[in-house]
Amino acid sequence: MSKLKKQQGSYILKNKEKLLNKKRKIKFIKRGIFLFIVLTSVLVTLCLNLSYFNIASITVKGNENLTKEEIIERSNIKVGENIFTVKTNKAISSVKENPYVITSHVKRKFPNEIIVTVKERKAAFYSKLNEEFYIIDNEGIILDKKKTIENPNLVRLEGINLSNPTLGSEIPMENKKKLKDINTLSDIIYDYNSKDENVKITMIELNNFLDIKIHCNNNVYIKIGTDDDIPEKLAKAFSILKDKQLKNMKGYIDVSFDGNPVIYKQD
């Protein structure tokens, strides 16, 4: 036993300097950790209380249908709020609850600005139920309900089921392929109406998907027939609509069959 104690004592004497350095190092690390915690606490307190980090402006990007004010209100972020206390994930979820919004992103721009970026659905159609108008996007999603139609570029959809409309939901369709048809029609008609053409598309009749009709603003409508080859059929019809000789024509253009289109004029 005494021999073991002598060995331990001998080890301590030989390694005294090394052991002292180790103790100093541990003490230094503990002090460093304590100092780091204190400084971090002070920094966090300053950040949360200095007016320098209070939100001075909220920028909204990507919105076309919704106003800046609507998006800011939905986000629950307020000017004057501390930028570090903003719950970005909650704000993103709240903004996405609006049927118009596909995606949203909230970013802090230090020291005092918040940037909200959204990607919106494209309002393409409207349909009337009783005395109210329902705004519909190119994928058949019901976006909004209004008393009046303020956007003259929206095309009226007739013949769809709106017996129980729910904002943010698809138009009730037994056959999902019909929603794809609506999307196809939307893209083609949007491109056509965006051009500087005198004749514009104003309404689509979908009462019978075997006899689809598209109405223009000049007393002419287009008989598409079935949903086969919609792009090709409309390309033929639009080419005819550009003919200046048919400028004041009343009647319809039949492209529902293979072969050359037939023009029916009414007196």
Concise structural overview:
The protein has 267 residues and is α/β, with parallel strands linked by helices.
Question: Please, could you describe this protein's structure?
Answer:
With 267 residues, the protein is α/β, with parallel strands linked by helices. The protein has three domains: 2-49; 52-120, Ubiquitin-like (UB roll); 123-265, 3-Layer(aba) Sandwich (Rossmann fold), CATH 3.40.50. The chain contains six helices and twelve strands. The chain has a nine-stranded mixed beta sheet, with helices on one face. Helix 3 crosses helix 4 (88-96) and helix 5 runs parallel beside helix 6. The radius of gyration is 34 Å and the shape is elongated. The chain starts with a helix and ends with a strand.
Question: Topology, please?
Answer:
Blueprint (H helix, E strand, L loop, with lengths): L1 H13 L1 H34 L7 E5 L6 H8 L12 H9 L4 E9 L3 E8 L2 E7 L2 E6 L4 E5 L8 E4 L18 H18 L6 E5 L6 E5 L3 E6 L4 H12 L9 E4 L7 E4 L2
Parallel strand pairs: 1-3, 4-7, 7-8, 10-11
Antiparallel strand pairs: 2-3, 4-5, 5-6, 8-9, 9-10, 11-12
- Count of discrete alpha- or pi-helical segments spanning 4 or more residues: 6
Poorly predicted segments: none
Could you give a short account of the major beta sheet? 9 strands, mixed
> Shape, please?
elongated
The H/E string reads HHEHHEEEEEEHEEEHEE
Structural class: alpha/beta
How many domains would you count in the coordinates? 3
CATH class of the largest domain: Alpha Beta
Average predicted confidence as pLDDT: 87
CATH fold topology of the largest domain: Rossmann fold
Q: Which band does the percent of strand residues land in? A: 25-35%
Distance between the termini: 127 Å
Helix content, binned percent = 25-40%
Main sheet: strand order: 6-5-4-7-8-9-10-11-12
CATH architecture of the largest domain: 3-Layer(aba) Sandwich
- Structural Rg: 34 Å
Number of strands: 12
